[in-house]
Structures are given as C-alpha cells and as structure tokens.
Amino acid sequence: MEKELTLLEELQGLIEQENREAIHDLMESLKAEDLVYAYNRFSKDDQASLINLLSPEDAATLLERIPQNQAIEAIENAEVETAASILNELYSDDQVDILAELDSTDAEAILDEMLPAEAENVRRLIQYDSESAGGLMVTEYLAFESDMTVGQTVKYLQEKAEEYEDYHVQYIYVTNNSRFAGVLQMRDLLLSRPNTKLSSIVIRNAFSMPPEASLEDLISFFDKYDFFGVPIVDGEDQLLGIVLRKDLREAESERSNLELLETQGIVGGEELRSMPVLLRSKRRLSWLSVNILLNIIAASVIAFYQDTLEEVIALAVFLPVISDMSGCSGNQAVAVSLRELSLGLVKPYELARVLWQEVKVGLINGTVLGILIGIAAYIYMGNAYLGLVVGGALAINTVVAVSIGGTIPLFLKKMNTDPALASGPILTTITDMLGFFLALTFAGVAMNYLV
Predict the structure, then answer these.
(1) pLDDT exceeds cutoff 60 at 347
(2) How far apart are CA 96 and CA 90, in angstroms?
C-alpha cells in the first residue's frame, strides 16, 4: 500500500511539474499493473495531462495497458493532432477498436491527421465486424514475393530491423504476384542457403481464413491447431492480414467477461468505478428495477398460501433452500447454453434437443438433491412427510429449472433478445414461483400429516 501511495505522489508531482523526461523514465521502470493502478487513481484532468505530457510512443503503450473504454476516453479528450500521433503508434487492430467507438465526425477528424498510409489502412479495416477475422486481424506482418532469395530477404530484414522490432515475427508470409502462396518459418529462412528462392522452401497449402470468418470459427480453428496465427485471405487470394492467437484469446476473454457482467445485471457493457456515479447507477438500476417487480410476483405465491405457511411454519426454513438450489441448477444450464451459443455449437432452433439433454441431467440431479434435502428435513423435524414435501418440491423444481435454463437462452436468441442479460431474471422468477407453489401445494395436501 505504501509503495502505491509513493508511486502516485511521485507521478502526481511530475505531472504538476510537467517533467516529460522524468515521467518517461518512471514509466520505463513501472510494471504494467502499477501503471494502470496509478492512472485509475488520477482525476480526469490529471489523466488528460499525463496523456498530453507523454510522447506518442509512451502514450500508445499506456493505452494498450488500460481498459479499452478508458483508452477511448483518453483519445476523445485529447487534441486531434495528439490523438492522431498516438494512434499512429498503435497496432492496426487497436486503432480500429478505438476509432470505431468514436463519434464519426471526431473519428474522421483524427483520421485526416494520421499518417496517410495508417489512415487508409484503418478506413479499410473498420468496415469489418469487430468479432470477425477482418475485425481482429493485424496488418503488421512480413510478406515477401516468392521469387526473392533467402539472402535478399535476410538482408532486407536486417536493414529494416528497427522498423520491425515491434512486430510479432515467427513466420513470414510468401506471395506470388501479391497472391498468398504460403508460410515460411523463420527457422527455415535462417538455415537455408542465401541463393535459395523462397518459392522452394515455402510451406504451400497453408491454412488461411476469409475476413468474414466469425469469432466462433476462429476459436474452433485455434482450438484445433496450435498455430501462432492464421493468415486472412480474401476471395481473390489477396493476403489482408493476420489474426494472432493472443489477440483471439483476448477477444474471447473480453466477450466472456461482458457476458458475465450482463448476467449479473451490469447493463451497457463494462463498468469501472472510475466512471461517473450516475452512469453506473443507471446501468445497474435498469436491471434491478425489473428484477424487483419479478421478485414481487414470485413472492405473491407465498402470500396466496399464507394460511398453509402459518400452519406448517417449518416450511419457511426450506423455501429459500428450494428456490436457491433450483436457481443454481438452472443457472448452470444457462451458462452451458450461453457458452455453446457463443461457440456456434448449438443453434437457436435446437430447443427440443437441448430440452431433452437437460431433462436427463435434471432428473438425476433433482432426485439426488431431493433426497438430500428430504433427509435434512426429516432430521430437523422428525417428520418423514415434511421430508417428502420439500424433497419432492426440490426434485421437480430442479428438473423444470434446468429445462428452462437450457432452453431460454436459445429462445431469447431466436427473438433477437440478449440471452445473457435476460435469462437470469426470467429463470429466477419462474423457479422461485414454481418452488414456492410446489412446496406449499404439497404441504396443503399433506397438512394432516404435518401438524
């Protein structure tokens, strides 16, 4: 803690002094997590001041480390010329990710100030969907014509070493009259004779993917093949870019994190505590306000059976257990369906197949859980009928919960509604209502044996 406070005070002082050189030296010595921590503790004004005091290269390094929404905000708040110079230093996929989120007028103004080649590249890439191969590919790669020799290629790389030092170089890509011809490992390049043509050592028929390939297609590809990256080639065999394994995994992780936030009621995407309080409150309340209405509906079942509950007060102990355990079982099914939908392993129209798969699991798990809670109820009250009531209610509710949990994401997807956001509240309401209804109805039928 003391270390972090010292770092904050030191960086704060350098910002106030506008000591660019000392800020650069301090940044060079910091770990990524320390820099992100410090940036998040600064006020908006100090964050903007820091960005303006950094060189374009250092500012780009900072933007690569902080959350994307903060990077977007930093570019939005910077002068157009400053923003353009920073973006010139970023990888092409990061440039597109940031500019795609800006107001079109602001983005165009920045593009006009960027290096012409960089701006042209961004305008081409920004047309692709952000979760497609075209949206994830980088254009920083090494490609050489097949009629070049090993000696010519190595000499060129040595001459341009400083320019390519930030490239992810494990392979070079070989073209034939600008058409993709294959892949060449750096090892094979360096161990071949200088006068050898690239065409004679290139790996032909290398895997490639079209720019329209989805995130699910890419995930499936990299799960199957342990490659560093995959070339993206259009219908005319033109090499457009490379999707790196690390970038794909980052995109997959980001989507999973956003889906997790949505299932927990964080509406509108990623939330950070550095965001305005009213914005954070609005995002949460839009989900919570709907949830409270749904919970009131579920609670109305208890009110309807109030007389039964007063007669068998022991049920009050087990009602929360029935609703919670059924909800947990249902949420497991929701999570599996969301995962399979995101990977393209299941389609929205496969409701019957998913329902049958979940019913089988629900019958097993419901029976086991029903027996366990039934035994607990019997031990607690010494009444076997109470055990049958709560055990039966939990068993049936579990089957229903997993059936609904497995199928409702598919149904919502089919209705063009976000399944990650809506599945949880709907499932919770149904399982609570049904759990309370089953337990209290069974108790009413067996009333003479419970009191």
Answers:
(1) yes
(2) 10
pLDDT of residue 247: 87
- Residue 367 to residue 360: CA distance in whole angstroms: 11
In our burial notation (b when 16+ CB lie closer than 10 A, e otherwise), range 173-210 reads bbbeeeebbbbbeeebbeebeeeeebbebbeeebebbe
Give the residue-averaged pLDDT of 43-55.
Answer: 87
**Structural contact between residues 407 and 358, judged by C-beta atoms closer than 8 angstroms:** yes
Question: Would you tell me how many other CB atoms lie within 10 Å of the CB of residue 127?
Answer: 11
Work out the pLDDT band at 88, boundaries 50, 70, 90.
Answer: very high
d(CA 224, CA 59): 37
What does pTM read for this prediction? 0.64
Alpha helix positions (H), 185-231:
186-190, 198-201, 215-224
> Which one has a higher pLDDT value, 278 or 91?
91
What's at 154, amino acid-wise? V
Per residue, the 3-state secondary structure of 50-106, as one string, reads HHHHCCHHHHHHHHHHCCHHHHHHHHHHCCHHHHHHHHCCCCHHHHHHHHCCCCHHH
- CA dist 364 and 353 (Å) reads 18
Q: How far apart are CA 107 and CA 128, in angstroms?
A: 16
Q: Which residues contact 95 (CB under 8 A, 6 or more apart)?
A: 87, 118, 121, 122, 125
Q: Is 108 left (phi over 0), alpha (psi -120 to 50) or beta?
A: alpha
Q: What are phi and psi of 93, to 5 degrees?
A: -65, -35
Nearby residues of 103 by Cβ (< 8 Å), 6 or more positions away: none
More confident residue, 233 or 39: 233
Overall average pLDDT of the 220-245 stretch: 91
Confidence tier at 82 by pLDDT (50, 70, 90): very high
Phi-psi region of 237 (alpha: psi -120 to 50; beta: other; left: phi over 0): left
